[in-house]
């Protein structure tokens, strides 16, 4: 029996049907489109079986599948090693084209290169598209073509290019839904993928909460953030819609979205920064890396309320306010002299919005070892940060119920830690 010729659209970090660039182009092709998602064992095998992010991905895929059902279509869900899955698909279907959106992380680039080679060996055309960012790879560079390593000139060039475009056009594929293949694939249970539902939830995003973002964003008790970051991470919202909205409504919020693209550009241009200091001169720092100190930091038992509240919020919810992230990261690297990589790995495990580029970039910023980083002699005083941004202790009391009775003493004196850090950095910075 002759197989029907089809195109595939491969969902990854773009879990939505609307304004999805790669999907838009797939649906413009002449062949029926089969939507695909692969639960990649190379990623899943390193996660706890109740990982909240897997639950969120699963629920987002189920939402997509329900929408597809209204078009008499469905999504094909596979689990396994990515290369093995594609080899199986090539034998099962007469695939002519594969469409997907680009991912700029080193692991993803290596994976996609291998899959495209496999597809081409089997006479399958492979098409990739920019969707995760407004400007990618080498679109924002210095005059000599080299990447920016300082945020402000990058931002200025980014805005100049964006305003030259006027706006970023969005992809409307609503009239092409009939081009999905007529399929009735079985949608697996979460347990069939090897996971169970997490009690930690990804919250809905809400742009109305950031009306006064510039004035309120540094005060964690106000809870005035958008909760967009996990949705950006997994692409349940379109970056084009967000940027166009922010440009009209909130320039401070737009700057935060540009920071995200800056770090993605840094990671793409300097992939070694995943495991190494961007500034190699800092490679000589002699970190203490005390495991007991690290455990107290992880559990939120340092005796510094702003640090402990942030870590407990992270452990219980998968979220942490951005101002508090800076305080806890600085404390780990500067007060405890623990390598930023330890903190980066812990955040990668716990954060619902974990994105490699931003996580590495921000941790190196806090440690002073990254591009455009805080200077090494800038050591946040957690007590001053608390007085400035949680003066009444509302955020702290929410996460530290014992704050007003029997709360721990600080595990290290701030003045002592600051002097020790500056001396250690001075001695360790390579000339």
TrEMBL record:
Signal peptide: none annotated. It comes from the Bacteria. GO terms for molecular function: deoxyribodipyrimidine photo-lyase activity; DNA binding; FAD binding. Its cofactor is FAD; (6R)-5,10-methylene-5,6,7,8-tetrahydrofolate. It is an enzyme of class 4 (lyase). The keyword Coiled coil does not apply. GO terms for biological process: nucleobase-containing compound metabolic process; response to light stimulus; response to stress. It holds the Pfam family DNA_photolyase. Binds 1 FAD per subunit. Keywords: Chromophore, FAD, Flavoprotein, Lyase. The record marks 287, 340, 363 as: Electron transfer via tryptophanyl radical. Its EC number is 4.1.99.3. FAD binds at residues 213, 225-229, 253, 256-263. InterPro entries: Crypto/Photolyase_FAD-like_sf, Crypto/Photolyase_N_sf, Cryptochr/Photolyase_FAD-bd, Cryptochrome/DNA_photolyase_1, DNA_photolyase_1_CS_C, DNA_photolyase_N, Rossmann-like_a/b/a_fold. Residues 5-134 form the Photolyase/cryptochrome alpha/beta domain. Belongs to the DNA photolyase family. This is Deoxyribodipyrimidine photo-lyase.
